[in-house]
Design goal:
CATH architecture of the largest domain: 3-Layer(aba) Sandwich
CATH topology of the largest domain: Rossmann fold
Mean pLDDT: 82
Number of helices: 14
Shape: flat
Order of helices and strands: EEHEEEHEHHHHHEHEEHEHEEHHHH
Distance between the termini: 18 Å
Strand content: 15-25%
Number of strands: 12
CATH class of the largest domain: Alpha Beta
Low-confidence stretches: 242-253
Radius of gyration: 29 Å
Structural class: alpha/beta
Largest sheet: 6 strands, mixed
CATH superfamily of the largest domain: P-loop containing nucleotide triphosphate hydrolases
Number of domains: 3
Length: 448
């Protein structure tokens, strides 16, 4: 599956002060040398010179660094060319490389080659994409942990234990003529199997947290028309994002924006006001409100008058399994008497004046129920990993059931082997299909 041709790609966004072009492959140094006017024989040494066209025209001044195999990102000979950030200069340089023998790299091909050449396992390769797309501290810390091998280390420990158990059972099979010979104590085997299954399940359970951190935690702002939902969104964002009007039914579609609270990204969704209406367009907006409410993890129910018992029951029923925050708005219009405060409300704010907004943000952060994530914590963020862990859990469950029922060691050993192979799919040790790898790396950007 390892391709041996030499690839190139622009590795930085256009429009910046500088652009970096990367090459990887056996011919990297030779191809770059033909368009660079200085020798680049010394590995890891930056050389200043000029990119020159085949006609002898100077394209740009450049800094070229040569990384000799295997001491490079991909494990192959690599060259990085730093030039000015002009789109024309970058395109012209890439064109010269292609004319010189390079092929335009596909998305994620540099990291794919790093994986195939043993520079990292598949979990670390996937962490590269997560690190690039990290939008908050928590998602950054999760990606760093995975890139440093946090997931790989845990899986390696599990595999070693499972392999030990399998070896003991297979040893019994080698001496199957002696029916009373038992190398693996069944009580100890059962205990270890249950311990490993517990570790697998904890890792799988972390996916809910990982996905929420990676994608952002959905917060639906719902309530009746003209209760101040759009004003609240604008206040949280610190900008006039949603239209604010005294006219009922102004918001007819959902508006989504993100903010970061204590290192976590929250996706705030301003929704159409809930009311009875004959307006067809507004009815569609209200239907979308209920859809977004179902998708959100947290619901901020904005009220400016006490809800009826029916409304309260309906909202709580609709938010079953979600965190519901009942927030009284328009505190600036309420009198100072205690009767002006709505008892059912957990917080009282003035979205217009900004009163109570900091407390609301703290309440939303607490409602997320996301634990503090450190760079050493192991959290699953990939749906692929989650699905594999569920299959490993199923194999271990069969092992535990077989041990309790006194099933023969050959069947137990087979399930243990299957579990080992399944876990190996996460790190890439058991993946043989190039289609699977293409699917994983196609989500990367070109140049990485």
């Amino acid at each position: 599956m390892i391709e041996t041709d030499t690839i190139c790609a622009l590795a930085t966004p256009t429009g910046g002060a500088i652009a970096i072009i990367r090459t990887s492959g056996n011919e990297s140094r030779a191809i770059v040398a033909r368009l660079f006017d200085k020798p680049i024989d010394k590995p890891r040494q930056a050389t200043v010179g000029h990119i020159v066209s085949t006609k002898g025209d100077v394209i740009d001044e450049a800094v070229v660094t040569y990384y000799q195999s295997p001491h490079s990102y991909t494990g192959e000979d690599c060259v990085e060319i730093s030039i000015h950030g002009s789109r024309y200069i970058a395109d012209a340089t890439v064109q010269l490389l292609i004319e010189g023998g390079c092929r335009q790299a596909r998305p994620g091909e540099f990291t794919k080659r790093a994986f195939l050449n043993g520079k990292m396992d598949l979990t670390q390769a996937e962490a590269v994409a997560d690190l690039i797309s990290a939008t908050n501290r928590a998602s950054h810390d999760m990606a760093i942990s995975q890139l440093r091998g946090g997931v790989s280390t845990q899986l390696a420990q599990m595999r070693d234990q499972l392999q030990h158990l399998t070896s003991l059972l297979e040893l019994e099979l080698d001496f199957s003529d002696h029916e009373d010979l038992e190398f693996a104590d069944r009580t100890e085997l059962l205990r270890l199997s249950e311990t490993i299954r517990g570790a697998v399940r904890r890792l799988a359970d972390s996916f809910k947290t990982g996905r929420a951190i990676k994608q952002g935690i959905g917060v639906a702002i719902v309530g009746k028309t003209n209760v101040g939902k759009s004003t609240l969104l604008n206040r949280l964002l610190g900008e006039e994002r949603a239209i604010v009007s005294d006219t009922h039914g102004t918001t007819r579609d959902t508006i989504e924006e993100t903010i970061t609270i204590h290192g976590l990204t929250f996706r705030f969704i301003d929704t159409a006001g809930l009311r009875q209406t004959d307006d067809t367009i507004e009815q569609i907006g209200i239907a979308r409100t209920y859809q977004k409410l179902d998708e959100a993890q947290i619901v901020v129910w904005l009220i400016d008058e006490p809800p009826t018992q029916t409304e309260l029951q309906q909202m709580r029923s609709r938010c079953n399994g979600k965190r519901l925050l009942i927030v009284q708005n328009k505190l600036d219009l309420a009198s100072s008497s205690s009767s002006a405060r709505i008892p059912i409300a957990e917080l009282a704010i003035s979205a217009k004046q900004g009163t109570g907004i900091a407390a609301l943000e703290e309440a939303i952060y607490a409602a997320s129920d996301i634990p503090e994530i450190g760079s050493n914590d192991v959290i699953i963020t990939s749906a692929r990993h989650y699905e594999i862990l569920l299959r490993a859990d199923a194999s271990l469950t069969r092992v535990i059931t077989s041990l309790r029922q006194g099933i023969t060691p050959d069947l137990i050993a087979e399930d243990l082997r299957q579990c080992i192979l399944t876990l190996n799919e996460i790190t890439g040790q058991a993946i043989t299909s190039d289609t699977t790898l293409q699917t994983i790396f196609s989500e990367f950007c070109v140049g990485k």
